[in-house]
């Protein structure tokens, strides 16, 4: 049986990536470690091959774009991912690099895909375009010291990860403030996810705005299962809601359809504001009032910083905040507006 990099790593008590770096005489490996690993290689009769060399060298000239599990129609059809992939691909092209997509219907398969891309040296690094508390992929990237940047706010290791994000808490606050300025006091926050970083941040912003205005803070209205759709009308009536802050544009359209089914008129009896300013915000009337998060810039900067990380031009622990702005359209109307 042929001796592999893994055999050498196991006997030497080091990572396979360390063996690969020793093979390529990488300066990041100490002379003592190089001496130990080379001694094990001689003892085992290991002869480096091209695959092992490539494992230690960045030669693929490609980066991987990791999408979250596309486990619903909303996610599959969400233009956010198309827009951000286009921006990443365009920026990669400027650096003479190509992009490869990692996606799946659940986290287990997604992790397998990412591991395969890394171990087969298909890519030099990754852009992770989401932040999810249940995600095993970011742990794999972090623990294996694989170059990656994150779009969103990490749940841990914030001081060691390079991430690009909007100020989502400020987004949630400003969306809610806009409704309050238009006279709304009974405002609900509606979402179809409860484990993504942007949900927590935007909902915290909603809570902050409501508390600062001396208004009642309501639990988030989570619509994920069939029974959630059935209870939607009751929740709105019990709260006396006149306005909603919705997690993103595509789900805002679903929320508008649901509200209209229960007899609400948008915006006459229910105002709605959302986020992303995607193409969906102007596909149907009334046009959706939304906060533009500059998706293209999120993707461009994440790719640019990954390129710098791959070439050791920056170190870890960088947070970059992309500005946003409110787009006023037709789904918010004044209700005894405050002067």
UniProtKB/TrEMBL annotation:
SMART domains: HTH_LACI
Annotated HTH lacI-type domain residues: 3-57
One GO MF term attached to the UniProt entry: transcription cis-regulatory region binding
Family annotation (InterPro entries): HTH_LacI, LacI/GalR-like_sensor, Lambda_DNA-bd_dom_sf, Peripla_BP_I
Name of the molecule in the record: LacI family transcriptional regulator
Keywords: DNA-binding, Transcription, Transcription regulation
Pfam families: LacI, Peripla_BP_3
